[in-house]
């Protein structure tokens, strides 16, 4: 009678090491995300800066453009919003370079500016509120705006 030796333990170790080698990047990304989400405070600092009462006093957080203009834009953003990142990278640089004298923009972080968020019923970011100061007309837009769409809206509010 012939007795077979069991090698299943070695086979399992080999399979596990092959799996790790094949999926090394995915495993590393998963571990990084897990570490960041375990400590929510660390994630907030990594993505959105400081979380303290000092930020609550700074509403709006920034004012950009020509303050003497009649077109006012209230821009509601969040550091966790990919569409907001897209606005900051693509639409806003062109807008400020080409139309800086035509409007002024107030930026609001929705985590801290609760009064303004409630006033305009902001449910997501990015959100824009376009105002004509002379006639007190307001237009609210939810979602991403490209440079050309922003330019058209500013021109229509000016009329």
Estimate the global geometry from the Cα principal axes.
Answer: elongated
Structural class: alpha+beta
Provide the CATH topology of the largest domain: Glutaredoxin
Q: Work out the number of β strands.
A: 5
Summarize model confidence as the mean pLDDT. Answer: 80
Rounded to the nearest angstrom, the distance between the terminal CA atoms is: 98 Å
- Can you tell me the number of structural domains? 2
Helix content: 40-55%
CATH architecture title of the largest domain: 3-Layer(aba) Sandwich
Low-pLDDT runs of 5+ residues are 41-52
Question: What's the arrangement of strands in the largest beta sheet?
Answer: 1-3-2-4-5
Strand content: 15-25%
* H/E series: HHHHEEHEHEEH
CATH class of the largest domain: Alpha Beta
Number of helices: 7
CATH superfamily of the largest domain: Glutaredoxin
Task: Tell me what you see in this structure.
By secondary structure, the protein is an alpha+beta fold. A 5-stranded mixed β-sheet has the order 1-3-2-4-5. The termini are far apart.
Topology, pairings included?
Layout (H helix, E strand, L loop, with lengths): L7 H15 L1 H15 L1 H9 L4 H5 L4 E4 L5 E7 L4 H18 L4 E6 L4 H6 L7 E6 L4 E6 L4 H12 L1
Parallel strand pairs: 2-3
Antiparallel strand pairs: 1-3, 2-4, 4-5
């Amino acid at each position: 009678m012939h007795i077979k030796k069991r090698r299943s333990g070695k086979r399992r170790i080999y399979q596990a090491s092959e799996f790790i080698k094949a999926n090394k990047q995915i495993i590393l990304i998963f571990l990084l995300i897990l570490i960041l989400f375990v400590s929510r405070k660390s994630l907030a600092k990594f993505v959105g800066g400081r979380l303290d009462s000092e930020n609550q006093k700074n509403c709006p957080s920034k004012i950009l453009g020509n303050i003497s203009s009649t077109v006012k834009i209230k821009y509601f953003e969040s550091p966790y919003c990919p569409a907001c990142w897209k606005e900051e990278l693509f639409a806003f640089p062109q807008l400020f370079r080409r139309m800086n004298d035509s409007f002024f923009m107030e930026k609001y972080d929705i985590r801290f500016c609760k009064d303004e968020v409630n006033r305009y019923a902001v449910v997501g970011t990015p959100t824009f509120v376009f105002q004509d100061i002379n006639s007190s007309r307001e237009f609210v837009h939810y979602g991403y705006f490209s440079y050309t769409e922003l330019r058209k809206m500013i021109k229509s509010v000016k009329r």
